[in-house]
Design goal:
Keywords: Signal. This protein has a domain of about 240 residues. It contains eight helices and 17 strands. The radius of gyration is 24 Å and the shape is elongated. It is about 25% helix and about 30% strand. The two termini are about 25 Å apart. It has about 375 residues and is α+β, with helices and mostly antiparallel strands. The strands form three sheets. Strands 1, 2, 3, 4, 5, 6, 7, 10, 13, 14, 15, 16 and 17 form a 13-stranded mixed beta sheet that branches. It has a two-stranded antiparallel sheet with strand order 8-9.
Length: about 375
């Protein structure tokens, strides 16, 4: 049943797009009316494709995996990119702990525990900045695919078609004016930005394609649909622990840099019957660290409870049990808009170049 398999791939892609971000704080260690195929030329909306090598001028290496790139050749290499999503971590929490073993008490060691935690949030980051980066990411993606020899239809090219009428938009958060996500197993809040309010298309059960499927079949019948997603993390905050023969430690480390935590583009073309070997598309293999080393300024407020630590120490002396020492802090990351945008686009454009390379080499 080709249509069902195509839907299954889209549903799996949805899960990947949602879960690929993982616990981004801990991972942020230093170290995005139907017509026939000729409609694009007839409408005059999409420029004719040119042929040129994909551009990655950032010098950043972005290892990717690609599955079923041959799908891009459907419909005479015509693709449609209705939107793109860039996810930004805007606040979160990271924690780490270390406990001494019972054997460590021999010879004067400690069976105590140490904990460290930090909360952080962004300052100077808003909807306008988020959407401007998403627009740059979208335009860069479209441009690189056109340079790879594809006819690319954009939102403006298809917005008047029947299947775009009444399309559902995502629910927005009152504070940000954009949708937010909280990944499972994470304390982070991710802001999800599209290039414009009109392109903030709802992501449903079947993922980013949910609004482009009807009765188990793609609504778009003259092009392969692609939707890229990128996740940006700044600042970089992570926990570290250590131990020697007689001491243990736990602490929070920070840096004002930025990571491309994940990037993926999934696609849905003509329904096919085949053995699935993954989700059709291109995805990063791992976080890309330090796409910039300075995207803003970090400031710290110590929130450690000295009274709680003293109480734990006192109870330890009375009972003979180990004590628990905790330290905590709140961090504010004040975004430098130009540096933040430049860093994000270095990582995003480097990923887009890899997608364009895969598309160019598709057979």
């Amino acid at each position: 049943m080709p249509d069902n398999k195509n839907l299954l791939a889209a549903a799996i892609a949805a899960a990947l797009a949602t879960l690929v971000t993982g616990c981004v704080s801990n991972a942020a260690k230093s170290g995005g009316g139907e017509s026939s195929a000729p409609v694009a030329a007839a409408q005059g909306a999409a420029p004719a494709p040119t042929t040129a090598a994909p551009v990655n001028s950032s010098g950043i290496s972005v290892p990717v995996t690609a599955v079923n790139p041959e799908d891009l050749l459907d419909y005479n290499k015509t693709i449609v990119v209705p939107t793109a999503y860039v996810k930004f971590v805007v606040d979160g929490k990271v924690g780490v702990s270390k406990q001494g073993s019972a054997l460590s008490t021999i010879g004067g060691g400690s069976a105590n525990s140490v904990k460290a935690s930090a909360k952080y949030h962004l300052s100077g980051f808003d909807k306008a900045l988020a959407q401007s980066i998403a627009k740059k990411a979208y335009d860069d993606f479209v441009g690189q695919l056109r340079a790879a020899g594809y006819t690319v239809l954009t939102y403006n090219d298809i917005k008047g078609r029947d299947y775009m009428q009444g399309i559902a938009l995502a629910k927005t958060d009152a504070k940000w004016g954009l949708p937010v996500e909280s990944p499972v197993g994470s304390s982070d809040t991710l802001l999800v930005a599209a290039p414009s309010d009109e392109q903030q298309i709802k992501i449903g059960f079947t993922g980013p394609f949910s609004e482009f499927i009807s009765l188990g079949k793609p609504k778009i019948k003259d092009a392969t649909i692609l939707i890229p997603t990128y996740t940006i993390v700044a600042p970089q905050i992570w926990g570290e622990t250590g131990a020697t023969y007689s001491t243990i430690s736990a602490g929070i480390q920070t840096a004002p840099g930025m990571n491309l935590q994940a990037a993926a583009v999934t696609w849905m073309g003509k329904p096919k019957t085949r053995m699935m070997r993954g989700i059709p598309g291109v995805a990063t293999k791992a976080p890309v660290l330090n796409i910039t080393t300075n995207a803003g300024t970090l400031s710290k407020t110590d929130t450690t409870s000295n009274a709680a630590n003293a109480l734990s120490k006192g109870l330890s002396l009375l009972s003979g049990a180990g004590s628990i020492t905790s330290n905590s802090a709140d961090y504010t990351f004040t975004v430098n808009p130009a540096a933040y945008t430049s860093g994000a686009m270095k990582g995003i454009s480097a990923f887009n170049a890899e997608v364009a390379r895969v598309a160019r080499e598709a057979k």
